[in-house]
Specification:
The protein is of the alpha+beta class and 455 residues long. The chain is 61% helix and 12% strand. Helix 1 packs antiparallel against helix 3.
Length: 455
């Protein structure tokens, strides 16, 4: 019994001891946890703050991505709008040039008809005396016809004389009458033709006016889209004017522009970069792919650089203005030298297009050239257009072949080309340059062009 009591007592003591140890352990853990929680409080707050910052950054990134997406959409829309505008500009300008060409043909036919009318009238005037004499004879014969031999046989001598005179005169009278009838009929036809051609000319002139009115706002829209930084544009324009005053030649003008004008320098760099990129791209093309690219060099109105090298455009360039060529490359210039370009007798207020893709290296007045444009076509080639009354492109701007870049005046302003030729109408001077020297532009013009600027 005592042993049993001792065992029970010992077990109870052990349980109490264990409960005490457990309570102590729990208390210690509680204290330790509280202390740990107190120590971790600032860190938890910091984590919460960082999480809030992260959510803010994520929101900002989301907004930025949304803005970037909208900007990309705007860029796509802008590129599409530019493509549509370029296409509309080129198409409208082509129709305008075709109308100018038709008007020129009508004026030429009208001039020929008017000249023929003058010749016929002069011929009739010169034969007025003979015609009056024939008409007088016929009138007398009508009043007093030759005597009838049967009715009046005693007047046989008078009848014979009348017959002889009439026999001698009738062939001449008959021929003159036929010629007079022919001339009068031709005069009537010519005058009808003059009337019709004048009506056609009036229609073409009205069409020209309407097309020019439609083209003007499109050109203004293009320039507004390109000239967002108006102050910078004005500074470049003034810079170009100053450099033009200092330049002593076209070669010097190009060199000064590309050295001292930021816009012209960017244009030159863009041309060189485009040449390098195109050369690298073409190096990987097969001959078939290269020929395909050459077959339609002006097809894509959204292009931002020439699709093919300028040297590969021989026989493909459109004429920059409607009108006949009055002087060609290499012809005597009247001062003991030879022409370095060609001169086109353009229509009054006619539109001038860029004959090739390229960057504007100069735009503005220059010496006796009138308004001058220089297009950097890449590969060391430059196209010079001079004699216009107004240009509508800026230095550094990329232009497409067929795009309107200037307009002619009425011929009142005398330029070097009009003075040299003695022309009363506006003259467009066109010069191709390669590495600083003038070259013959003849091989580059499209052979199918009705104006035959290539010779």
């Amino acid at each position: 019994m005592p042993r049993t009591d001792m065992s029970v007592s010992s077990m109870a003591g052990n349980e109490a001891t264990e409960r005490g140890l457990i309570s102590a352990a729990l208390f210690a853990i509680s204290v330790a946890f509280s202390a740990h929680a107190e120590q971790q409080g600032p860190d938890a707050k910091d984590i919460s703050s960082k999480q809030q910052e992260l959510r803010g950054v994520e929101d900002t990134m989301g907004a930025a991505q949304e803005r970037a997406r909208r900007l990309e959409e705007q860029l796509v829309d802008h590129a599409a709008a530019r493509e549509r505008l370029n296409g509309a500009l080129i198409e409208s300008t082509l129709r305008l040039q075709e109308t100018e060409g038709r008007a020129a043909e009508i004026e030429e036919r009208l001039s020929t008809l008017t000249e023929n009318e003058g010749k016929i009238v002069a011929s009739l005037e010169s034969r007025r005396g003979l015609i009056m004499e024939i008409l007088t004879v016929l009138q007398r014969m009508g009043r007093k016809p030759p005597p009838a031999l049967i009715a009046r046989p005693n007047e046989i001598l008078e009848a014979v004389r009348a017959s002889l005179a009439l026999g001698a005169l009738l062939p001449q009278m008959r021929a003159e009458a036929r010629q007079l009838q022919h001339d009068l009929s031709e005069l009537e036809q010519v005058r009808d033709g003059v009337r019709r051609e004048r009506e056609r000319l009036a229609e073409q002139q009205a069409s020209l006016s309407a097309q020019r009115e439609r083209l003007a706002p499109m050109i203004a829209e293009r320039q507004d889209a390109l000239s967002s930084a108006q102050s910078a544009l004005q500074a470049e324009t003034e810079r170009a004017r100053t450099l033009a005053q200092r330049a002593t030649s076209l070669k010097d003008l190009i060199a000064r522009m590309e050295a001292d004008s930021a816009a012209a320098r960017r244009a030159a760099e863009a041309a060189r970069k485009a040449d390098d990129e195109r050369a690298k791209a073409q190096a990987t093309l097969s001959e078939r792919e290269r020929l395909k690219a050459l077959s339609a060099p002006f097809k894509d109105p959204a292009r931002l650089a020439p699709a093919v090298a300028f040297i590969d455009l021989k026989g493909r360039l459109p004429a920059p203005a409607a009108g006949p060529v009055v002087r060609r490359f290499g012809a005597p210039d009247g001062s003991g030298g030879k022409e370095k370009g060609l001169s086109i007798a353009a229509r009054e207020n006619g539109v001038v297009i860029a004959p090739c893709d390229g960057w504007i290296a100069f735009s503005g007045p220059y010496r006796s050239y009138g308004q001058l444009l220089i297009i950097n076509a890449g590969g060391g080639y430059y196209v010079v257009l001079a004699g216009m009354s107004r240009t509508n492109v800026n230095v550094g701007q990329f232009v497409l072949a067929g795009e309107p870049v200037a307009s002619m005046g009425d011929g009142a302003a005398q330029t070097a080309a009009t003075i040299a030729i003695g022309a009363k109408q506006p003259i467009l001077y066109v010069e191709f340059r390669k590495d600083g020297a003038s070259i013959d532009s003849g091989p580059w013009w499209a052979k199918s062009d009705s104006r035959k600027v290539g010779g």
